[in-house]
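For the sake of transparency, this paper describes our internal protein records without simplification. The remainder of this section carries one protein's record, kept here as part of the documentation:
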Amino acid sequence: MASLQAALKNAIQVEYQLEDSEVAAEPLPSGDERHSILFYESAEGGAGVLRHLVDDPVAFARVAAQALQVCHFDPQTGEDLRHAPNAKEDCEAACYDCLMSYYNQMDHRHLDRQTIKEYLLQCSQSTSTSSPQSISRAEHCQHLLNLCKSDLEREWLTFIEKSNLRLPSHAQLLLETCHTRPDFFYEQEHAAIYVDGPHHQYPERQQRDQTQKDCMEDTGYTVIRFDLLESWDKVIEKYPSVFGLLGS
């Protein structure tokens, strides 16, 4: 785990051309009990690369391939190249051209590039999906489907899932400030999603929807409506910060 943490951190920096201080990595729950690795952007504001790493299904595979190169392996075959291109001495377990750095001196005794080669090779051939919750994407999607109130809502959610876009964090969440319950809600993006059936075409309902939208936007929410008259693809493309990129 210590070797994997160092390799992925260095690979992220190389892949996205970041300084060593811009991305941080920590073992969880502790350095003595490593069950997972937390990566975060340590520079103020951040470059957004970790969000891209989550949203792009093949981004992690590219980082894994880069990690193999960092560790002196051929990313295609796994052949041990023994050292960095300009190095004169072979690297047995770890060196300052691969896993060792000033920031991880406490881990130097644990580092061994050989222990992570097979795992990185598998990851370099992988695709990834993301979930807005701690459960898997498939489990979260099923939970949202169970909360849907109409076939149209289920159709919309299935469209989002099959397009590998970001899933909503909630369904049927009550927003008390404006006395509304959006069909879906993206918590991090503060975006409320309404999937409108034919009854929303009536003037009285449209007026109520507009009043509701005004209240939501005054409160700081983004309101996004999908109806039967407008292509869902076109709506998605207007809000890449909410849904991600269609066709990615």
The longest helix spans residues 203-219. The two ends are 30 Å apart (CA to CA). The chain is about 35% helix and 15% strand.
